[in-house]
Each structure stands twice: as C-alpha cells, then as structure tokens.
Amino acid sequence: MTAVGSGVAGVSWVVAGGFAAWAAARAAGVDRVRKTESVTVPLMSFTPQVAAAAPLAALALRLTGRRGPATTVVLASAALGLVVRSRAVPRRQPAATGPTLRVLTNNMLVGRAEPEAIVGRVRAADPDVLFLQELTSGAEIRLKQAGLEDLLPHTLIEHIDGGPRGSAIYSRYPLSEALPHPETFAAQPTAVLELPGGDAVELICVHLRAPALRRDGSVPWRSELGMLPAPGKRPRVIAGDFNASVDHAAFRDLLRLGYADAAVQTGTGLVRTWGPPNQDPWLTIDHVLVSRGCAVRACAVYDVAGSDHRAVYAEISLPARDEA
Predict the structure, then answer these.
(1) Domains in the chain, ordered, with CATH?
(2) What is the per-residue pLDDT for 68?
(3) Which regions of 161-310 does DSSP assign to beta strands (E)?
(4) Helix, strand, coil: what percent of the chain each, to 5?
(5) Cys-Cys with 231: which of 122, 250, 258, 268 at CB 3.0–4.6 Å?
(6) Residues 296, 260: contact at Cβ < 8 Å?
(7) What is the structure's pLDDT at 84?
C-alpha cells in the first residue's frame, strides 16, 4: 500500500470512527459523565446535523472504495436515524376530553424582541397563555404600550434586578400563584390557571442557564433541569427556553417523569428554535412540555423579529377532571 493510500485509509477510518463514536455516545447517554460533560453536553445538541451528514459520508466512502469505513458509517447512520427521525413522526395522543388550552412561548433576547412582533403573533395565534423569558423591565413597559395586556390581562411577572433574567406568564384567564419554584439563575414563575368551566392547569415558565464549554460549565444547567418537578394531580404545562434538546440525557430524564414534548408529539420535533441573530436556527432548545393525560393537537414554530429564538406554539387538550 502506498503512503498516499495508507493516508486515505487512515482518514477514512477516522471519519468512520467519529460517526460511530457519536452514535455510541448518544445511545449510551455519555453526556451524563461528569468528567466529560463540559464537552459532550453542548455537542449532543448537534446530533440531528450529524445524523443528516452520516448517509452522505457513507456514500462518499463507498464511492472511494472504502468498504469497511463505509459499512461502519452506515451502521452509525442507522442508529442515529432511529433516534432522530422518530421526532418527525406524529404520535398517537391520549383521549383527552377536557378544555383546549393554547400556549405560546418566546425568549426575548435580553428584551430586544420587537414588542409589536410579539403582540402581532399573539393576535394571530390567539393563545390563552404567553410565556416570556429574558423579559427586562423596559421590555415589559414596551409590551404594555403595544397592547399585550389588553389581549392577555392576567399576569405573573418576575424580575431579577430589572435585567434579562426576568420571565413572565401572561394569560387570558385568572392566575394564582402555585408552589414557588426553587431559586435559579433566571426567574421561573409558576402559576395555576383557572379556566372558565372550573378546570385548572399548572404553569411553569422555564429559563435554564445554558451549559458552557468550560470545566463544570454544565453543572448549573443539569442542577436547574433536575429541579423541575414531576407531574402532580393537576395537568401541567412547562414551557420556555430549556437550553436542552431531546438528545440530552438529562432532558430525557425529565420526560420520563411523565411529560411529553409537544413538538415531538406532533412530528415537528426537528424544527429548530435557536440560532445566532440573523442566521438560520441551529438548535431545538425551546419546548412546550405537557403532563401525562394531555393531548397535543398542534404545534408550530414562528420567527419573532428582534429575537434569536423562535416562538413555539402548542394547542393542548386537557384531560377532563375525572380523567386527570
């Protein structure tokens, strides 16, 4: 074998090994491992992109005659495709016969999202509840001036020093405070929404600290994710910026408590919700989660001018009181 041929073979196996290692890491949930989580947690967010690239890599290796590496990538592609493509297939929903609840959530990018864009989306989607993250004191005033509270008059707003760690729940119907959420980096208000027929649903507006590429940079994120409560007797909706995707083991642990991701339930779980400003979205980290017994009838994602996050909308059928 010539030196060139040997070099090409080596590169081919490196490529194949990379895809195989990613598939194994995703299957094993290696982002749980504390010694490597500072790297693996951020990387796992890009699993859909790796899954999309794997078939192309396998084809390229096959065309260059690298059978062994090509076969390895084909197997990795199948494993990644199994966990990723299932998010594009709608799931069967529970036979929930209670009232319908429409919710919308958006991260305002340190208050920079255009108030008129948010209010316009509220008018178009007609949600019963709006969850906002990175709501500054100034953004709250501008939203009020734009008419948000005319549409959703009941509010629960929590600020931390008036800056971007504020969050809010705006509602068409009365809100009462629920059990307070443990203190976290950003405000995460909780409420009980009282519907006209006497039904009630618990709401949590989520904004988790983002994992960082540094030593122990994922520890606060994992801790805050672990603080979210398991479902109780009442139906519950948890919505906001989780800074987590379905490819994170800790997020899947939360789902296993008894929650369902609205986008995954409707086959739109691969639609991306976050990216650098003025670029196409990269990651799916904004979610609407519903507790067991709730049925997701629709889910959609919308651009919001001025924000680096897209808004997530979900229409949910709550279980009847005798079904909960």
Answers:
(1) 3-88 (no CATH), 100-317 (3.60.10.10)
(2) 81
(3) 167-171, 175-177, 190-194, 200-207, 236-241, 259-261, 286-291, 295-302
(4) 35, 20, 40
(5) 258
(6) yes
(7) 96
Query: Residue 1's pLDDT band (boundaries 50, 70, 90)?
Result: very low
Strands annotated E in the chain: 100-107, 129-133, 154-158, 167-171, 175-177, 190-194, 200-207, 236-241, 259-261, 286-291, 295-302, 311-317
Tell me which residue has tokens 């960082």: 212
- Ramachandran class of 266: left when φ > 0, alpha when ψ lies in -120 to 50, beta otherwise: alpha
* Residue from 146, 141, 157 nearest 121 by CA: 146
Q: How many CA atoms lie within 13 A of 280 on its CB side?
A: 1
- CA-to-CA distance for 319 and 167, rounded, in angstroms? 27
pLDDT > 90 fraction of the chain, expressed in percent and rounded: 79
**1 Cβ neighbours under 8 A, 6+ residues apart:** 9
Identity of the residue numbered 190: T
Q: What phi, psi does 168 have (nearest 5°)?
A: -155, 155
pTM confidence score: 0.94
- 269, 275, 324: which is closest to 295 by C-alpha? 324
Q: Which two tokens stand for residue 37?
A: 């989580």
Dihedral sign from CA coordinates of 249, 38, 276, 171: positive
Q: Are 185 and 165 in contact (CB under 8 A)?
A: yes
CA nearest 293: which of 101, 100, 95? 95
